[in-house]
Write a structure and sequence with these properties.
By secondary structure, this protein is of the alpha/beta class. It is built from 18 helices and 15 strands.
C-alpha cells in the first residue's frame, strides 16, 4: 500500500516554502517572506485559517472568491465521499453522465430567463475561451469588445480580453480582433458596436479589479445596444456570481438577461475545479448544429463526477443556508460601518460594493504632514499605501486581505458568505486601528512604509 497522504504531510510539515522555492514559483515565496505572510497553516474551517500555534485568522480573500461557502464545508465533503464510495463510472466519454445532467438542470432553474443550456469546463478562463469561440461561430463575426481594467483570465484567449497591461506584457501577440472600451461608458460601447462587426461584448457586472460598480442604467442599456447591433452579451460572473453580491447573479440587480453567463470559482465549493457557460438555446444549437460537430468543443475532465457533485452540493448549500440573503445583509452592515470611519480618517476616501464584494479606497489626505508621507509612498510605487494597510492588518490583527488591483489604493474584501457579527466586529476593529496608526506620522507603521518604498525603488532601478 502507498504511504498515506496524512503520513507524508506529517513527515514534511513546515517544508512547504522550501519545496516551492526549489520546485515551483520561487518569486512567490520571496513575496510572502518579504511582506510577512509566511505562515504555516495547518487547518481551515469556514471563514477561518489556523496556523501551527492554533492562531485563528479571518480569511477575507476566500481563495479569490472560491470559498464563498467557507473552507471544508461538511455537506460538500459528504457529497464527494458519496461519489467515491459509489464507485460510479466516470468520464466514459462515449456516454453522458447523470450528475452533469442534474447539475445543468439545477443551474438552469436558477439563472436569468432564457439561459437554458449548459457547457461545462474546468475554470473561469476556460469558460471565457468557450464564450469567445461560441460567440464567433454563432454570429459569424470575429470582433470581441471588452472593458478597460476588466479581468477575464490568463490563458491566451482570455488574456486577450484582459484590461490590465500588467498581465499582458510580454505575452503577445494576443488574439486579433479584440478591443477595449471604458467600463460604464455607453457612448463608447455604442461606437464600437455600430460597426456591426462585433460578435460579443464581455463584461463583469461589477469589475473585480477595483470593485467598480456600474450606474443603474448601464447594464440594461448594454443589453439593448447589443441586441440592436446584433452582438451577444456575455456576463462574466466568475467572481460576482453565486450570491457574492447579495443576488444569486449580479445581473439580477439590474434585471438583465445576457446571452451567455459565465461561472466558476464558488461553484466548486473549493474542492474540485468546475466552470460553466450558461447560454441561450440558439447559441448551443448553432455551435453544435450537426452530429459530426457534437465534439467540436469540449474539455476532457469537464464533466467528471466529483466536479459535478461539488457543484450540485454547493448550490444546495447556498439555498439551504440562505447565503444570498446573508451576503446582502452582512454586506450592507459592513459597508455602513466601514463608511462611518471616513469622517475620522483623512486617508480613507470611499467604501463601496454590493453584498460581500467590497472595496475600501484610500487617497491623498489634506494636512501637509500626511500629504508629504503619502507622496513619498506614491512616488516610490503607486498603490504602495495599501500594502502599508494590509500587512499590519494581517500581522497584528490576523485579518487576511488583498489589494484590489495593480497600482491602485484599494483594499478588496471577498469574505465567505456566512461571516458573523463577531467577524464584522473583527474586521471593523482591525481596519479602525490600522488606519488610525497610518495617521501617526512619524510612527512604526511608517517605518514599514519606508521599507516598502525602498524595496520598490530598488526594483525600479534594476
Amino acid at each position: 500500500m502507498p504511504t498515506p497522504i496524512s503520513e507524508l504531510l506529517q513527515q514534511q510539515q513546515g517544508q512547504h516554502f522550501d519545496l516551492h522555492e526549489q520546485y515551483l514559483n520561487n518569486q512567490m515565496v520571496r513575496v510572502l517572506k518579504t511582506i510577512g505572510y509566511d505562515r504555516t497553516y495547518t487547518r481551515a474551517k469556514g471563514q477561518y485559517l489556523y496556523d501551527q500555534d492554533n492562531n485563528e485568522y479571518l480569511d477575507l480573500l476566500s481563495g479569490f472568491g472560491v470559498y464563498a461557502l467557507g473552507r471544508n464545508h461538511p455537506a460538500i465533503i459528504a457529497a464527494l465521499k458519496d461519489v467515491l464510495n459509489a464507485e460510479l463510472p466516470d468520464l466514459v466519454q462515449l456516454d453522458v453522465s447523470l450528475l452533469s445532467g442534474m447539475l445543468a438542470e439545477k443551474i438552469v432553474k436558477n439563472t436569468p430567463q432564457g439561459l437554458d443550456r449548459l457547457f461545462f469546463c474546468n475554470s473561469g478562463s476556460e469558460a471565457v475561451e468557450a464564450a469567445i469561440k461560441f460567440a464567433r461561430y454563432t454570429t459569424g463575426r470575429s470582433h470581441i469588445v471588452y472593458c478597460e481594467h476588466g479581468y477575464h483570465g490568463l490563458t491566451l484567449g482570455s488574456l486577450s480580453l484582459n484590461g490590465e497591461n500588467v498581465f499582458r506584457e510580454g505575452f503577445g501577440p494576443l488574439l486579433p480582433d479584440c478591443s477595449a472600451v471604458p467600463f460604464n461608458d455607453l457612448p463608447a460601447l455604442e461606437k464600437a458596436l455600430a460597426s456591426k462587426e462585433v460578435a460579443a461584448f464581455i463584461v463583469e457586472p461589477i469589475q473585480g479589479k477595483g470593485v467598480n460598480l456600474p450606474s443603474d442604467d448601464y447594464l440594461p442599456e448594454v443589453q439593448r445596444l447589443c441586441k440592436q447591433y446584433g452582438a451577444l452579451l456575455v456576463a462574466d460572473e466568475v467572481q460576482t456570481g453565486l450570491g457574492r453580491t447579495g443576488e444569486l447573479w449580479a445581473v439580477n440587480h439590474w434585471n438583465v438577461e445576457p446571452d451567455m453567463l459565465l461561472m466558476a470559482k464558488a461553484l466548486s465549493g473549493g474542492f474540485v475545479a468546475v466552470g460553466a457557460v450558461a447560454m441561450k438555446s440558439f447559441v448551443m444549437d448553432k455551435v453544435f448544429n450537426r452530429m459530426d460537430r457534437a465534439v467540436v468543443h469540449g474539455s476532457t475532465f469537464s464533466k467528471n463526477n466529483m466536479a459535478m457533485a461539488a457543484g450540485l452540493s454547493s448550490l444546495m448549500v447556498i439555498e439551504e443556508e440562505n447565503l444570498v440573503e446573508k451576503a446582502r445583509q452582512s454586506g450592507q452592515q459592513l459597508i455602513a460601518r466601514l463608511s462611518a470611519l471616513i469622517e475620522q480618517y483623512e486617508f480613507l476616501h470611499e467604501v463601496r460594493g454590493k453584498g460581500l464584494m467590497i472595496a475600501i479606497e484610500f487617497g491623498s489626505p489634506t494636512s501637509l504632514k500626511l500629504k508629504a508621507a503619502w507622496t513619498m509612498l506614491e512616488t516610490a510605487n503607486k498603490g504602495l499605501f495599501c500594502q502599508m494597510v494590509t500587512i499590519p492588518l494581517f500581522s497584528e490583527h490576523r485579518v487576511l486581505t488583498q489589494v484590489a488591483g495593480h497600482g491602485m489604493n484599494v483594499v478588496k474584501l471577498l469574505p465567505p458568505l456566512m461571516i458573523t457579527e463577531k467577524d464584522i466586529d473583527w474586521i471593523v476593529d482591525g481596519f479602525d486601528k490600522t488606519i488610525a496608526d497610518c495617521h501617526k506620522v512619524p510612527g512604526s507603521i511608517w517605518d514599514l512604509g519606508k521599507t516598502l518604498a525602498g524595496h520598490a525603488l530598488k526594483s525600479h532601478n534594476r
